[in-house]
């Protein structure tokens, strides 16, 4: 180690240590802000926080993902990003303090962070290659330079032959403790004024770079926003019938039959929601058994015969009684018709492909059974949701919707590629991580009211909720009070077998603590099991119950 790299080994006072931590924080801020600016020239997903966060999601065990969704819900991505930033802040503080003695080592630590970000960015499924490494590497270079400058201002100073302080190492005896009680003049041991000026300039420049980067990244999405704002969906050739009278119970606390777009659950791995310009979007269909490959533009898709259907979607991460289920009115083109035009046949008719792999613009891969997609159900390439173009969070400009299958094997958002293959030949994203290849929705039911630990008054209490078994339909719902007999609930009018069904049960509540349990029976006669399982690998099972105290 050279002398100019190693700083004096005298004691470090609290003021100087704090300044070192601040230097690390400013250097970290400079690194992230510069990376934000550079990512505007590459793509927003190449930024180090997003890249590292995405890599963390890719490598997180399924059980941990399940825990995060269960505990943080749709805020899991925000929690992950905040966690990454907190760890980066601690790392930056440590590097700043280390740079008080070893400037080059501290700067090398910043560069190491850049290398990690670059590897994460280039290793993502949607990576465009080496350009994705640039934001992290350039940002790390800027951060390292800032740390070297600030650490230089914090270096100890020795007196010259005339007693005046100069930069460099102490002539002897190590370095006095700045601000220490034994040396009143120690506060002059480092260039405090130079440090404050340099840190202020660096922070201001970084803030400007970060603000400009965010503005440029926002501008890059304006075309996508404009393409959605201009879009007027064509009238579907096969519109959905009005929701039948009586399908939606007017009982306080029960979920609305149609879930508003803003309330519809969102569970995916995208830390940055892709904003895709519909005017440049393309969908490619190819693979085994595709005798006529095709590439569609968004206008091509809109010119197809569109249908409109009410369909309930369910996430495989939905716990028993959980919130990750909702119903929307979807508008789109029939996926089976498009596949048939490309020459695709289902396996039951001799087709060589049994798996349809859908790819998203963010690199996500989702595998669906070809047989299910082509068996006559309303599997859609959806372009509309509840009468408007798809929200960006839910897949604009186009996504897959397949009733009866959990979302992780059917509901590819921001879809851009469809490949026909086999389950033996290819494992999509979630299968690689321990989830099932196929995941039909299980027969489930939920008590929406009364809520857990509610304290209703004695007398008539309305117990109500929803039940679902998409593509089979709900035939019966029963409620049990404590260990009593199962009693049949009143079912709301059925919209279709692809939607959930509301139910209600008038209960004469007696004072005391009670447990209410619900079970559903689908139209195939299958009764909701009482066997409790977790969500991995193909969805949770069991019966929902709530505990209430009647006063």
N→C terminal distance: 76 Å
State the helical fraction: 25-40%
Task: Name the strands of the widest sheet in spatial order.
Answer: 4-3-12-7-8
DSSP strand count = 20
C-alpha geometry: globular
Q: Largest sheet at a glance?
A: 5 strands, mixed
List keywords for this structure.
20 strands; globular; disordered N terminus
TL;DR?
The chain is α+β, with helices and mostly antiparallel strands.
Q: Could you characterize what this model shows?
A:
The chain has twelve helices and 20 strands. Helix 1 packs parallel to helix 7 (192-220). Helix content is 32%, strand content 21%. The model is unreliable at 1-5, 158-163 and 165-188 (pLDDT under 50). It is globular, with a radius of gyration of 30 Å. It has helices at residues 14-42, 48-59, 62-72, 76-98, 103-122, 134-153, 192-220, 222-230, 298-303, 335-341, 370-373, 429-432, and strands at 157-159, 165-167, 282-287, 294-297, 306-314, 325-334, 355-360, 365-369, 380-385, 388-389, 399-401, 415-421, 444-449, 459-468, 474-481, 487-488, 490-491, 501-509, 512-522, 545-550. The strands form five sheets. A five-stranded mixed β-sheet has the order 4-3-12-7-8. With 551 residues, it is of the alpha+beta class. The longest helix has 29 residues, at 14-42.
């Amino acid at each position: 180690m050279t002398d100019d790299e190693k700083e004096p080994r005298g004691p470090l006072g609290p003021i100087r240590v704090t300044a070192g931590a601040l230097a690390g924080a400013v250097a970290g801020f400079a690194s992230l802000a510069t990376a934000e600016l550079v990512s505007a020239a590459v793509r927003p997903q190449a930024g180090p926080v997003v890249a590292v966060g995405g890599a963390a999601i890719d490598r997180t065990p399924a059980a941990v993902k399940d825990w995060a969704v269960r505990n943080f819900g749709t805020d899991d991505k925000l929690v992950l990003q905040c966690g990454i930033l907190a760890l980066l802040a601690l790392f930056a503080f440590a590097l700043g303090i280390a740079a008080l003695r070893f400037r080059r080592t501290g700067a090398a630590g910043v560069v190491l962070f850049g290398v990690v970000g670059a590897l994460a960015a280039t290793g993502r499924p949607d990576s465009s290659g080496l350009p994705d490494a640039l934001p992290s590497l350039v940002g790390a270079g800027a951060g390292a330079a800032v740390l070297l400058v600030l650490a230089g201002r914090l270096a100890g100073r020795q007196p010259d032959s005339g007693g005046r302080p100069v930069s460099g190492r102490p002539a002897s005896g190590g370095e006095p403790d700045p601000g220490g009680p034994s040396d009143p003049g120690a506060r002059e041991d480092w260039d405090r004024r130079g440090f404050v000026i340099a840190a202020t300039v660096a922070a201001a420049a970084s803030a400007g770079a970060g603000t400009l980067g965010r503005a440029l990244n926002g501008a890059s999405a304006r075309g996508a926003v404009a393409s959605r704002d201009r879009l007027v969906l064509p009238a579907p050739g096969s519109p959905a019938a009005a929701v039948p009278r009586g399908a939606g119970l007017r009982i306080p606390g029960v979920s609305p039959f149609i879930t508003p777009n803003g309330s519809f659950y969102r569970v995916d791995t995208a830390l940055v929601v892709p904003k895709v310009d519909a005017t440049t979007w393309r969908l490619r269909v190819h693979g085994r058994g595709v005798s006529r490959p095709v590439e569609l533009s968004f206008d091509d898709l809109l010119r197809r015969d569109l249908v409109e259907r009410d369909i309930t979607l369910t996430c495989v991460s939905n716990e028993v009684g959980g919130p990750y289920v909702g119903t929307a009115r979807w508008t789109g083109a029939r996926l089976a018709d498009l596949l048939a035009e490309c020459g695709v046949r289902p396996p039951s008719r001799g087709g060589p492909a049994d798996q349809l792999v859908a790819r998203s613009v963010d690199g996500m891969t989702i595998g669906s059974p070809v047989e299910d997609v082509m068996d006559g159900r309303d599997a859609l390439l959806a372009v509309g949701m509840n009468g408007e173009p798809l929200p960006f969070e839910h897949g604009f400009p186009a996504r897959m919707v397949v009733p009866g299958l959990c979302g992780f094997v059917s509901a590819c958002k921001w879809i851009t590629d469809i490949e026909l293959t086999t389950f033996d030949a290819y494992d999509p994203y979630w299968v690689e991580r321990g989830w099932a290849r196929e995941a039909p929705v299980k027969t489930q039911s939920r008590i929406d009211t009364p809520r857990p630990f509610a304290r209703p008054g004695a007398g008539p209490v309305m117990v109500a909720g929803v039940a679902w078994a998409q593509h089979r339909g709900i035939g019966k719902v029963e409620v049990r009070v404590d260990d009593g007999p199962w009693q049949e609930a009143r079912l709301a009018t059925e919209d279709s077998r692809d939607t959930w069904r509301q139910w209600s049960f008038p209960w004469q509540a007696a004072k005391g603590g009670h447990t209410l349990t619900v079970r559903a029976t689908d139209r195939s006669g299958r009764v909701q099991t009482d066997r409790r399982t977790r969500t991995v690998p193909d969805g949770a099972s069991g019966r929902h119950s709530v505990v209430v105290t009647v006063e």
